[in-house]
Write a structure and sequence with these properties.
The chain has strands at 2-5, 8-11, 16-22, 31-37, 44-49, 59-61, 69-74, 79-84, 93-100, 115-116, 120-125. With 126 residues, it is mainly β. Strand 7 (69-74) and strand 8 form a beta hairpin. The termini are far apart.
């Protein structure tokens, strides 16, 4: 199971750090991702990160957050993070963490993920 936390209300230009905690060690074998869903919109990919490989962890970002958000993971703690900087009102959404058994690439569609956290609300005021 996955548990997301760290959401809140922040002004535009501010920062937040989301966390995702897994209850099982098998978390370390999965590709992980963050998605978000704004009211009336589909759930969209934000960022993903691979398992530990020869080159370490490899992140991938959607164009809308590239350069502003940073995804990371700590396998020793079975945790994943999303550092969000320079937040904009359009970043307002419920943010979900997810785990995928796909390890050869980072899925960017929700159907590529097998386990989901419950979501945490991020609200950015203008």
């Amino acid at each position: 199971q996955l548990q997301a936390s760290g959401g809140g209300l922040v002004q535009a230009g501010g920062s937040l750090r989301l966390s995702c905690t897994a209850s099982e060690r098998t978390f370390n074998d999965y590709t992980l991702g963050w998605f978000r869903q704004a009211p009336g919109k589909e759930r969209e990919f934000v960022a993903g990160i691979t398992q530990w490989g020869l080159r370490g962890f490899n992140p991938y970002y959607s164009d809308s957050v590239k350069g502003r958000f940073t995804i990371s993971r700590d396998n020793a703690k079975s945790e994943m993070y999303l550092e969000m900087n320079s937040l904009k009102p359009e970043d307002t959404a419920i943010y979900y963490c997810a785990a995928s058994a796909t390890t050869t690439f980072i899925p960017v569609h929700r159907t590529g993920y097998d386990y989901w956290g419950q979501g945490t609300q991020v609200t950015v005021s203008s």
